[in-house]
Structure formats: structure tokens, C-alpha cells
Amino acid sequence: MPEFPIVDTHVHLWDTKRLNYPWLDGIPALNRPFLLSDYQKACGSVDVTAMVFVQCEAEPGQGMQEVDLAIAIAEGEPRLKGIVAWAPMAGGAQCREDLARLVAKSPLVKGVRRLIQSEPDPEFCLQEGFLECLQCLPDLNLSFDICISHEQLANTITMVRRCPDTTFVLDHIAKPDIRAGRLDPWRQELSELARSPNVVCKISGLVTEADPVNWTRDDLKPYIDHVIECFGFDRVMYGGDWPVSTQATDYPRWV
User: Fold this and answer.
1) Of 116, 130, 120, 40, nearest to 80 (Cα)?
2) How far apart are CA 19 and CA 121, in angstroms?
3) Do residues 223 and 188 make contact, with C-beta atoms less than 8 angstroms apart?
4) For residue 113, what are the β-bridge partners?
5) How far apart are CA 122 and CA 32, in angstroms?
6) Torsion angle in degrees (nearest 10) through CA of 30, 33, 34, 35
7) How does pLDDT run across 194-225, given as a tens digit for each residue?
8) 72-88: burial string, b at 16+ Cβ within 10 Å, e else
């Protein structure tokens, strides 16, 4: 274990008794409340000095309620320093209005996320309405978390270039195919994405992209090394991706 405190930039906390999370229906092991007390227990001897709550994909109509839940958690947990909220990002005047409502809720709302990985249209991230929303984020001091699979990297590079003033955070190093040991074209495309100075990268979510039962440090090392080579230490951050990561590891092992 590290002999220093860490910042966890990717924590999920959900309460299935209060909100609906349709995606959990297919994952029985995760389809229950995962609360702050559970996270604290899972950390074990790891000293987490600060954390960021990342939206957990509640039903779209409950996005604002999820932010309220995160704010309530923060009231009793001073280590919770930021919230990445769900936002529809549909474009038009409504988009700016929705984002302004989020910002007004709490200064803890630092960024937004709309999952790109689950969009059936491979061109979704290049739609004008979506780009319009991304381009207005700097005016509200908000960043955007990019959650994609490796097949979507090429279009993501174009998306980022269309929004040079927006700060982007790449979640889970773009989910490369670690289970198959496949590095390319992820390796080349990640290098290209890293050339945009407005992108930083979370080293998170790797174990669930590897063989969840048999993964080893050596399986992950080429991917982590490449991320650090591309982004440098000043543009990478640690993410626990708890409790999703529990499908493949306990928290101290991932640290």
C-alpha cells in the first residue's frame, strides 16, 4: 500500500432503494445499495484523503435527484470534493438551461458526463447539438468526462478538436481490449488524443476490461505505461471505479 494519502477521482455511490438504475438489472452482484459506509469499509488500509462522486447512470429523469443525493453525502463527508453529474447534452437553449441548474445546485458540481459508450450511433459524439453543449461548458467552469470504448476513440479525437476550450477527462483510459491483450489501434489513437492539451486521463476501470478472474499486474502494465508516456504524470489521475471494480478486484489490490 502507498504510504501517502490518495485522491480517488472516480467513486460511484448509489442507493437502489431511492433511485432506479436500469443497467443494474443485468448485474445481480451490483444491484443493491453501495453507500459511503460500504466504500469506507472497502478501502481498508488505503488512506483516501479526497474523492470525486461520478454519476451512476440512474434513470435520466432522476439525474437531478442523483445530484441531490451526492450533495447530501458531501454534507456528512468533507472528503467528497467534487461531483460529476449526469447531463442530457441534447443541444439547444435547453442544454445551457439544464447545465445552469446543475451549477446552481452546489459549487461541488465540477463536471458532467453523458455516456457515449452506450450510444448505438457511432457518430453520436459528433452531432452538432452535442458539440454545442460541450462548447458551452467552459462558460460554466464545467469539465466533461468521456466514457467510451476503444472503438470510439477515433471519433472522440475529432470531438475534442472541435471543442478546444473544453476540459475533457478520459475515463478508464478509453476501455482498451485488455482481456485479449490487444494494444492497437488503441495505442496510436490514445497518443493522438493526448496531443490535445485540454484532455487528462483517469487510470481507472482496467481490471474489468481484463480477465476479471485471472488478471495480473503484467496484463495491465503495457496499458498503464502507455498512458503515462502519452499524458505525463501531470495529466493522469487515479480512479477506483468502486463498486464496479468489485467484479474483478478488491479496493486495496487495485491501488
Assistant:
1) 40
2) 27
3) no
4) 86, 145
5) 32
6) 180
7) 999 999 999 999 999 999 999 999 999 999 99
8) ebbeeeeebbbbbbbbe
Q: If you compute the radius of gyration of the chain from its CA atoms, what whole number of angstroms results?
A: 17
- Tens of pLDDT, residue by residue over 28-62, are 999 999 999 999 999 999 999 999 999 999 998 99
The sign of the CA dihedral 239, 170, 246, 213 is negative
Q: Which amino acid is at 20?
A: N
Which amino acid is located at 231 in the chain? F
Give the distance, in angstroms, between the CA of residue 114 and the centroid of all CA atoms in the same chain.
Answer: 10
As a whole number of angstroms, the distance between CA 204 and CA 227 comes to: 11
Length of the chain: 255
Q: What is the pTM of this model?
A: 0.97
Distance, CA of 207 to CA of 216 (rounded, Å): 9
Name the grid cell of 16.
Answer: 437502489
